[in-house]
Amino acid sequence: MKKLAAIVVIALFFCSCKTQNLLVNQTEIKADESFQYNKEYQYTIRKDDKISISVWGEDNLSVGSVYGIYNSNEVYGKWLMVDTNGTIEMPKIGTINVEGKTIPELKEMLKTALKKWLINPIVDVKVLNKEIIVLGEVRNPNTVAIDKDYITLLEIISKTGGFEFYANLKSVKILRQEGENVKVTNLDLTVGNNILNTNIQLHPGDIVIVPSKKNKEFDKRIATIIPLTTTISAAAIIMGVL
């Protein structure tokens, strides 16, 4: 029932609200501020993340260790799932609240806790489900796994084989979850001298939508925020309109 209410709210939002163009003007196109390059950005752990924890020389304290031969393959389910409370259960240490922590912060937490048993613990933490979804007019629409905290738009497009012939490069959309809302930006990739503003920094969890020139073009004045939804729901709505 809550999902239905959210969809109704979103539909009314698009039908009734006056929205403003995310682009500054036709000669200087800039993505919304939150989509622009931020050298300080670091991924923060979220609910439902899959995390592997490696402690050098201590297989009994490791989950999905990148160090041990028998624990190294993550396809065997060697991970810790962040639960709905934002916590994980770590061997010996017990329950740890990890939601909102960066990888370096979690490493330091674990090192400090493990010093009760180890003199100089060497700890590595990896989030196994960092990914970006690419939909629409690319050669291989897909969910792309990434290892680093961010990747540029053109890098992620290259991983899907590039744009199809009918891709509408004037209206590429990026969706990003922020709390209960989804932020959206619209990019015109045909402006050749605007690469710094259009080849933006993508974060794990983002969705890229490349619409088709064949279909009715969606309103470029799309709102900067879609309230009370997820990136998946927002993408489904936008794809249904394109």
From TrEMBL:
Membrane-crossing segments per the record: none
Keywords recorded for this protein, A-Z: Cell outer membrane, Ion transport, Lipoprotein, Membrane, Palmitate, Polysaccharide transport, Porin, Signal, Sugar transport, Transmembrane, Transmembrane beta strand, Transport
Topology of the protein relative to the lipid bilayer: Multi-pass membrane protein
SLBB domain span: 130-210
Signal sequence range: 1-21
Keyword match Signal: yes
Domain of life: Bacteria
Domain Polysaccharide export protein N-terminal: 39-127
Location within or outside the cell: Cell outer membrane
InterPro entries: Poly_export, Poly_export_N, SLBB_dom
Family as reported in the entry's similarity comment: Belongs to the BexD/CtrA/VexA family.
PANTHER family, alphabetized: POLYSACCHARIDE EXPORT PROTEIN GFCE-RELATED
Name of the protein: Polysaccharide biosynthesis/export family protein
